[in-house]
Amino acid sequence: MASYILRRLALVLPTLLGIMIVNFALVQFVPGGPVEQAIARLEGGGDVFGGFAGGNNDAGGESVGEVDSRYVGARGLPPELIEELERQYGLDKPPLERFATMLWNYMRLDFGESYFRKIGVIDLVMEKMPVSISLGLWSTLIAYLISIPLGVRKALRDGSKFDSWTSAVIIAAYAIPGFLFAILLLVLLAGGSYWQIFPLRGLTSDNWESLSLMGKIADYMWHITLPVIASTISAFATLTLLTKNSFLDEIKKQYVMTARAKGLSESRVLYGHVFRNAMLIVIAGFPSVFVGIFFTGSLIIETIFSLDGLGRLGFEAAVARDYPVIFGTLFIFGLMGLVVGILSDIMYVLVDPRIDFEKREG
Q1: What is the Cα 118 distance to its own chain's centre?
Q2: Buried b (16+ CB within 10 A) or exposed e, 326-348
Q3: Is residue 330 part of a domain?
Q4: Where is it chiefly localized (predicted)?
Q5: Three-state SS for 198?
Q6: How far is CA 308 from the centre of its chain?
C-alpha cells in the first residue's frame, strides 16, 4: 500500500501542472481581462461586458495607438495609462514568463493579492471557507444519516410497495435540479408566496452578536436549514440507491448462506456480517461525496440563498477576471481534489484491509 500511495502522490504535481497549464492557456483567449475591467470602471461603465455589445467602442474620438487597440473601450485613454495598468496587473510580460512566475510563487505558498479587493488570496479563501464547509459538511452528514437506513430498508424489502414508492420519490428527487428545488423552498417556506418560516438569506441574523450561545446555535440552524436541504437532495438520492444495491449484492453471496446454515439469527447475519461489508463502498466514499457537494453545489445554492462562500467567490472572480483569485483557488482546490482521491483509497483499505490496490494495478 505504501508504494501505491507514493506513486499516487508522485502523480499529484504533474496532474496539477496540467490543470494549471490548460486553464492558463484558455484564459489567454478569453476577452475582457483585468485591464479592460479597469478601463470599464474608469469610464464609469462598471462592467467590461457592455463594451462587447458595442457600448464603448465609439467613445473618445481618435485612436491613441496600438498599445490600447487590443482593449475594448480603450479609445481616448492615454497610452501611458494603459501601460501602467498592464504593469500593475503583470500583463506587460510574455504569457510564458507570467506562468512560470506564478508557479514559482505558488511553490513558495505565495498566492498573491486580489486585483480588485486588495486582500491576499489566502485571506480571501479563509474568509469564505467556513460558509462552504458548513454547507458541505451538514449536507453530507444528513445525506448519510438518511440514505443508509433507507437504503438498507429498501434492500430488505426489495420489490415491495415500500420499495416501489420510495424509489419513485428518490428518482424524482434526483431528477429535480438543485437550483429549481432551492427556488421552490424559498417560494414555499421563506415568504415567497406562502409561509414565512425560514429566513430568506444569509447564515445569521442582524442581531447575531447580541444573542446568547444557545440563541446563536438556534439562529444558525434556522438559517442553514433550507440551503442544506437544497444541496442534500441529489446526494441523498444517489447514496440511497448505492446503499441498497450494495446491500443486495452482499445478501446474495455465499458467506450469507453459510452463516444462515450455521444457525445465526437473521439480525446477526444482516447487521453483523452483511452490513459491514455492504457499507465499505459507502463509508469509504465519504471524502469524495463531501468534496462533490462542497464544490459542485456551492455556487448555485450560495447565490440563491445569498451566502458569501467559495462558490460565489469563484464566480465573481471569473466575471471580474481577477486572475490571482481564479488561479489561486484553482490551484488550492485542484490540490485538495487530488489529495481527497488518495484519502478515499486509504479509507477503503482502512475499512477493509483485504483490499490491495497494488495487486489490482499489477
Answers
A1: 24
A2: bbbbbbbbbbebbebbbebbbbb
A3: yes
A4: membrane
A5: coil
A6: 14
Look up residue 261 and give its amino acid. A
Q: Does some domain include residue 158?
A: yes
**Dist CA 201 CA 184 (whole Å):** 14
Q: Are 102 and 28 in contact (CB under 8 A)?
A: no
For the four alpha carbons of 164, 276, 253 and 285, in that order, the dihedral sign comes to: positive
Residue 55 pLDDT class (50, 70, 90 cuts): very low
Question: Can you say how many angstroms the Cα of residue 110 is from the centroid of all Cα atoms in its chain?
Answer: 23
CA–CA distance, 143 with 7 (Å, rounded to integer): 33
**Contact criterion met (CB below 8 Å) for 63 and 73:** no
The answer for residues whose C-beta is within 8 angstroms of residue 162's C-beta and 6 or more apart is 153, 154
Query: Which residue from 311, 313, 309, 305 is spatially nearest to 201, judged by alpha carbons?
Result: 305
Q: What is residue 113's three-state secondary structure?
A: strand
- Does 223 map to a domain? yes
Model confidence pLDDT, tens digit, residues 87-127: 777 777 888 888 898 889 888 888 888 887 878 888 888 88
Asked if 95 and 136 sit in the same domain, the reply is no
In this prediction, residues 81-85 reach a mean pLDDT of 71
Contact 178, 300 (CB under 8 A): yes
What CA–CA distance (Å, rounded) separates 24 from 101? Answer: 13
Residue 333: CATH number of its domain: 1.10.3720.10
Running DSSP on this structure, what letter comes out for residue 271? Answer: I
Single out the residue in 47, 76, 110 at which a domain terminates: 110
Question: From CA 140, how far away is CA 145, in angstroms rounded?
Answer: 9
Q: Which three cell numbers stand for residue 313?
A: 467567490
- Residue keyed to cell 474608469: 42
In DSSP terms, 196 is beta-bridged to 190
Domains: count for the chain = 2
Last residue of a domain, one of 56, 77, 110: 110
Average pLDDT over residues 22-48: 70
- 93: how many CB neighbours lie within 10 A of its CB? 13
Same domain, 299 and 354: yes
Structural domain harbouring 164: 122-361
200 phi, psi to nearest 5 deg: -80, -30
In a 3-state reduction of DSSP, which class is residue 120? strand
> If residue 340 lies in a helix (H) or strand (E), which one and from where to where?
helix 323-351
